[in-house]
């Protein structure tokens, strides 16, 4: 799996990933990502901010569970055209600006916008293959 773009927002996440093959199950990918992140996030909360745990608590019969993610499978779709990829990357990068968190997309630390603008950032992305960059502007 290659990571082509991302934005971690306060209440949701955007990811553009590419699989080098056609035989993958998106539900399995989401499950693996969500499981790993929620496990680490809950461990962090237990250690550093236990007062937040009741906000994530759900009682199922006699069992208490903690739900880090909203219910549902997310909003995933396949991108098949370079122009669509460019639009989706731009949408993701400008999400923090639209939400009033920063004034420039590259100022949001938890986004690949900075990487696209400077080639540096807290988390790198995988290079886009040339066939996916045909006609793509430098602003993506």
Q: Overview of this structure, please?
A:
The protein is of the alpha+beta class and 140 residues long. It has a domain at 2-31 and 73-132: Transposase IS200-like (Alpha-Beta Plaits, 2-Layer Sandwich), CATH 3.30.70. It has four helices and four strands; from the N terminus they run E-E-H-H-E-E-H-H. The chain has helices at residues 26-48, 53-56, 82-98, 113-118, and strands at 2-8, 13-18, 57-60, 63-66. Strands 1-2 form a two-stranded antiparallel sheet. A two-stranded antiparallel ribbon has the order 3-4. The longest helix has 23 residues, at 26-48.
Strand portion, in percent?
15-25%
What is the highest CATH level, the class of the domain at 2-31 and 73-132? Alpha Beta
What is the end-to-end distance? 21 Å
Could you say which structural class the secondary elements and strand pairing correspond to? alpha+beta
User: Looking at CATH, which topology of the domain at 2-31 and 73-132 would you report?
Assistant: Alpha-Beta Plaits
Largest sheet: 2 strands, antiparallel
Provide the spatial order of strands within the biggest beta sheet: 1-2
Number of helices: 4
SSE series: EEHHEEHH
The gross shape turns out to be globular
